[in-house]
Structure formats: structure tokens, C-alpha cells
Design a protein that fits this description.
α1 runs antiparallel to α2. This protein is α/β, with parallel strands linked by helices and 505 residues long. 18% of the residues lie in helices and 16% in strands.
Length: 505
């Protein structure tokens, strides 16, 4: 009997009961040397297209005949304890979601997930993991979501998440972590696009405030229901997050230790908060010069305020530590000094300190710093947009001029030359509003006519008599007509008198 057949025979009794017909048929085909051409659904599982669910079957080991074409495999609510290297008998190249929650898994060996290289979602929640060893998730370079909540994790060793460059969401809620796992952000090969970190319901007492001010700009960090030490730095962080409407804090505001009634605000912000209304400030400095920026909301003569953080476009600095390689320094009174300003220093600067009360989001707690002239410090995007606006304005002006010229030419050269004459000799059809003279009367008498001899005379409109029997007053006196307002043509001037009534119609 082949080894695969003997293994199948030894594992066909998982969950109780004798050999089932499906297992017997598979065993018979293997003994005869005819392996099945199409993978069948295991007897203790449910299969629907590319989804396989073996949940709640009290499995301690996996069936050998799991179809490898699955994209989702649910093994939750079983009795799995260890994930060895060969815990799955064959590679699952198409598997995208693996659910292992509600088992008794206490150990995961290195390369245990090498058979699932294209896994996107891994659920190991509600197990008995205590330590995440180094390289425990080797091979999961495409993993985007990792669920580890509800375990007993007390330590995350360096390099545990070093092979997860695509990880975006990490759930570590409900464990026993005592320190903030800051190393997972900096270790080589670790997550570079982590936008969601859930550390709620752990045992973390202190957090790196300066690092959190920088990391929170990249995504959500949930810290509710931890025994955090409510000092002035943490109070400053929570006030700033509340002002920024940071969703992890706004959604769970009542589950943080520093609340409005904690009484710590007055201790941290005594004689520090300014009663004057906050206004948006802009500071300008030339490149290479020095600039001092006071912290909004602090009284000008403040001598020694609690710890103050400044969130700058490039980094986060505070008043308790200083970097000799940086051109930014925070004084004890909260003032930020920028030495040898660079063009990259332009942007918004936020002052984070414990003020003792929550500011409305519309109040400006940030200031704008401009290095160089405002015209030269604009970004390339703004410059491109400005040039595009100038081009649009010039193009619109040119198009308007062209259209105006065309309308004038159409009006001058396509206007009818004569109006029809009625029986009474008056001009009909023109409404008494304009008389078009197609040529100079003297040129008509001499039999000559210029091509550009058109004249337009604008006269006052005359009210037409409603009585049909009463003859209408002619629009122009047959004796003389003054052509004031006639457009000049050649050497003729405004004010000439037309005396030829034959061409007045």
C-alpha cells in the first residue's frame, strides 16, 4: 500500500465514525494505481466553487484531499494546536484567505505559510499564541491583513513581521502587550504601508508620544482601554488628536484615561494657556536666515511650560530633546527656532502641548511658514496651475477678440443694402431705425461705385401710427438728412449732409 493511502486510511476516522464511502473510493483508486483526476470535497467539509469550509469539525489535522484550487479556506472552530512546516500536504497557489480562528494554536513554525505564497488575509485570532518569533510569517509578501486579536501575546520579537512589506492592517487587540511595538515600523523588510494598527485592550502603560505624532499621519492607531499613564505629554497628544478629529480617538473618546474631568489639565497648563483668541498666522523668512515661531495658545511671557511638541512638514521635535543634526529647536517656553531655513521647511507647523481644554477644529493651532518670497516658494503643482490659469485667460481674451472682429465684419459687409419702398415712398421693412446707404450719391450720379462705399446711419425710432388710413411720416426728410453717427469711410467725415433723396431709402 502506498504511503498516501496508508495516511488516508489512518486519518479517515477524524471526528468519529468508520470509513466513509468517499474515503474508501479514494483509497481503492490509489491502491489500483489510478489517482483521481478531479479533486473532490473532503467528507468533513463544505465546498462551494472555490470556497472550502471545514469549520467546527473538531479537526486536529487537516484532510489530505483538500482541493488546491481553493481561494478561501475556513478552518475555524477546530482543535489545531501547532502549525508545522508540513501542516498542509500540498501548495495552495490560489489561496487568498485563510481562516484559523477559534483553534488552540500555540506555536507557528518558520516557513509554515510557505505553501500559501499569495495569501492576502490571514486570521489567527482567538488562539493561544504567546510570542511572535522572528520570521514566523516568512513567505507572505503579499499579505495585506493579519488578525491576531484575542490571543495571549506578551512579546513580539524583532523580525517577526520583517517579511510582510505589503501589510496594511494589523489587529493585536485583546492581548497582553505591555510595550508599544514601535519596532515593527522600522525593522528592515517590515510593513511600509501600515495604515491600521489596533492595540486596544492590552496592558500598555506608556506610549512614545513623539513617534505617535508622526505615525498617526499615516493611518489609524487604536489605543483605547489600555492602562495609560495620564501625564502631560499624553494629554497634549489626546488634545491635538481631538482637535484634528482623529477617528481612533473621536470614535472611542470615553475609553481613554485622560478625560475632561480628570483634573490633570490645570496642572499641565497652569498659567500657560492664553486667553486671547487664536488667529491664523503666517511667518516668512529668507533662505539661510533664522526664524522664531511662538506656539499658538501660549502666553507670550511663558517661562517654562510643560513639554511642547512641534509637528513640522518633515519631522516631529519637542522641547525635552534636541538633535544636533537638525536645524529645528524647541525652547522651554514653546517657541520653535528654525536655523538656516531651507526651501523644504515651508509648510504647516502644529504646536502640540497640554492647554487644558479642547479647541474647536476651526481654531488654528497651526501656523504657516514660508521660506523665500511667496511667488518663489510655491510648489511645482501650484506653479503649473498658475501657468495654466494664465494660458486660459490669454486664450479666452484672444478668442473674444477674434469673435468680436468677425461679428463687426459680418455686420458691415453682410447687411442688406436697401430697404423695400412702400407705395407712399416711405421706407418699409427697416422699422425707421436705420438707413443703409450702399454708395456715395455723387458716385451713383457719375456711374461709379466703390466696393467699400457702404454707409450706416442710426436714427431715432419713430412710433408707427396704429391708424392704417393715416399716412406714415417718412423716416427721413426728402430734402436733407444729416448723417451724424455715420461710420467714416475713406476721407469722409461725420456731419456731411446727404442731399440726394433718390438714395435715401
Amino acid at each position: 500500500m502506498s504511503p498516501a493511502a496508508s495516511q488516508l486510511l489512518g486519518r479517515s476516522n477524524v471526528g468519529g465514525g468508520g470509513c466513509n464511502p468517499a474515503a474508501a473510493a479514494l483509497l481503492l483508486s490509489l491502491c489500483l494505481g489510478f489517482p483521481p483526476s478531479v479533486a473532490t470535497c473532503p467528507p468533513h467539509c463544505l465546498c462551494a466553487s472555490d470556497i472550502i469550509s471545514c469549520s467546527g469539525r473538531n479537526l486536529s489535522t487537516l484532510p489530505l484531499d483538500l482541493p488546491s484550487y481553493a481561494t478561501r479556506l475556513d478552518l475555524s472552530h477546530n482543535a489545531l494546536t501547532v502549525l508545522c512546516v508540513d501542516w498542509i500536504s500540498q501548495p495552495f497557489d490560489r489561496l487568498a484567505t485563510l481562516v484559523l480562528s477559534r483553534n488552540s494554536i500555540s506555536r507557528v513554525d518558520v516557513n509554515a505559510f510557505a505553501v500559501t505564497p499569495h495569501l492576502l488575509h490571514l486570521d489567527l485570532s482567538s488562539n493561544r499564541l504567546t510570542v511572535l518569533n522572528s520570521s514566523v510569517f516568512t513567505g507572505l509578501k503579499e499579505l495585506k491583513e493579519l488578525l491576531l486579536f484575542g490571543n495571549q501575546i506578551i512579546q513580539i520579537n524583532p523580525g517577526a513581521l520583517s517579511d510582510l512589506p505589503s501589510l496594511q492592517r494589523l489587529y493585536l487587540s485583546g492581548n497582553r502587550l505591555m510595550d508599544f511595538p514601535l519596532g515593527l515600523y522600522w525593522e528592515p523588510g517590515g510593513p511600509r504601508n501600515l495604515t491600521f494598527l489596533d492595540l486596544s485592550y492590552n496592558r500598555i502603560s506608556r506610549v512614545p508620544v513623539q513617534n505617535l505624532l508622526s505615525l498617526a499621519q499615516k493611518g489609524g492607531i487604536y489605543l483605547q482601554e489600555n492602562p495609560l499613564v495620564c501625564d502631560c505629554a499624553l494629554l497634549a497628544l489626546l488634545e491635538y488628536w481631538m482637535w484634528k478629529q482623529y477617528r481612533p480617538l473621536v470614535d472611542f473618546r470615553g475609553e481613554y484615561p485622560c478625560r475632561d474631568d480628570s483634573g490633570l489639565g490645570s496642572e499641565c497648563s497652569q498659567q500657560v494657556a492664553s486667553s486671547m483668541p487664536l488667529e491664523e498666522q503666517t511667518y516668512q523668512v529668507e533662505p539661510g536666515k533664522w526664524l522664531q515661531v511662538p506656539c499658538p495658545g501660549l502666553a507670550p511671557p511663558a517661562t517654562a511650560s510643560p513639554e511642547v511638541f512641534w509637528v513640522t512638514p518633515r519631522t516631529v521635535v519637542n522641547s525635552s530633546t534636541s538633535d544636533p543634526n537638525s536645524n529645528l529647536t524647541v525652547f522651554t517656553n514653546g517657541t520653535l527656532e528654525i536655523r538656516s531655513a531651507l526651501m523644504e521647511d515651508s509648510g504647516m507647523y502644529g504646536c502640540v502641548t497640554a492647554r487644558g481644554y479642547h479647541h474647536h477644529p476651526s481654531e488654528p493651532l497651526e501656523v504657516r511658514v514660508v521660506v523665500g518670497n511667496s511667488s518663489t516658494t510655491s510648489t511645482s503643482g501650484l506653479a503649473h496651475r498658475s501657468s495654466a490659469e494664465h494660458f486660459n485667460t490669454a486664450f479666452t481674451t484672444l478668442a473674444s477678440c477674434v469673435v468680436s472682429i468677425i461679428l463687426v465684419l459680418l455686420y458691415l459687409y453682410l447687411t442688406p443694402c436697401r430697404c423695400r419702398e412702400g407705395r407712399s415712398g416711405g421706407a418699409r421693412g427697416c422699422g425707421g431705425r436705420a438707413i443703409l446707404l450702399c454708395s456715395d450719391p455723387r458716385e451713383v450720379e457719375s456711374g461709379q461705385r466703390r466696393s467699400n462705399g457702404k454707409r450706416v446711419a442710426f436714427l431715432e425710432p419713430q412710433a408707427e401710427d396704429s391708424d392704417i388710413g393715416v399716412p406714415k411720416t417718412p423716416a427721413v426728410n426728402s430734402g436733407h438728412a444729416t448723417t451724424e453717427g455715420i461710420l467714416k469711410n475713406g476721407s469722409r467725415t461725420v456731419g456731411q449732409t446727404l442731399t440726394d433723396p433718390a438714395h435715401m431709402a
